[in-house]
């Protein structure tokens, strides 16, 4: 924290404080559920992929290309929509994105043409990028910076909850045919959009509450709305000219390469390479995701408790652990299912620490004025990783096998750990540099 600005919240009237706490909790829980719904119409493809190969004769390279194009478009969308997400109503923005993403999945389920698959999944990637920016806006407006690592880590479990539930759900739905992996999750997502519309609101001012403000900053300053020119100048300085945000963005590439290698290819590699059934593979990938929940919470708690809010330091430790467990999974040739599952659980626990903390660190360094933009920028690099985790792995496995592909992942993990070390001296947040928050 900054030495000249105390981030303790100004004392509120007890009734106002009670109402603020209610809406803070409601916003965190509602946005968590809403963001988990985005995963139902995004990570359903991984379970459908083996059946699509058999039914339509689609190759791993083609499936990897779908994943790569989707990821690249998603990263660009998350970045572009970050600018919009910092300045528009989060409720409207998030609901529209979820509805359009569900619509893409319904169209995907009805088609059989490879070209149409690619186009629709790219469109889905764009609409998926409308999910996180409004959440970044909400969280930084409702949670003070000195609590953001802990509470945003709790929120970040929505990633694992959504991804874990959808692979279990689709693991059984796929027995009805791979197309149902798109129809039924779309119905769940549309129900989630209705829930968001009813339950979600925007920043504190939208429900008549004061903005969070550090001591020494007036309410007028805290509620100051940037002109377009002021916003651009602030973003240029606090995001694009901030070397630590660049380091976090580059590190995010390596984190997401490992995360999506397991999440996207997990059911395929576990059934082909390790010989497990698709249903068991779905549960194992879900275990990877669910253990990530504990990893996120542990990383967020450790950041605030032991590292003074300096997230990159915790990322170094967790990334090194993730690399070790991926190495262990690679080198154990034919372990029993329970050992493979335990190793995936440990890897999930480790990789989701930095996955959660990168967004938290970027949001705090950019402050709530540009949090969605900063998170979108780091996300752009994260989803560029699908060049490796999507098409790259699909190509490597097709030509050299899973063994060779995992060797590449070990190199990715080591490089990511070294990259995080470059941000070791970063401050916990950027509020001390800018009085108007």
Written description of the protein model:
The chain is globular and about 60 Å long. Residues 1-10 have low confidence and may be disordered. The chain has 17 helices and no strands. Helices cover 76% and strands 0% of the residues. It has a single domain (14-205, 226-433), classed as Growth Hormone, Chain: A (Up-down Bundle). The two termini are 14 Å apart.
Short description:
With 437 residues, this protein is an all-alpha fold. It has 17 helices and no strands. The model is unreliable at 1-10 (pLDDT under 50).
Task: List the keywords.
globular; 437 residues; 0% strand; mainly alpha; Growth Hormone, Chain: A; single chain
List the helices and strands and how they pair.
Elements: H1 14-40, H2 45-56, H3 60-85, H4 90-110, H5 114-128, H6 132-142, H7 148-173, H8 180-199, H9 219-222, H10 228-240, H11 243-272, H12 278-306, H13 311-331, H14 337-366, H15 371-384, H16 386-400, H17 402-421
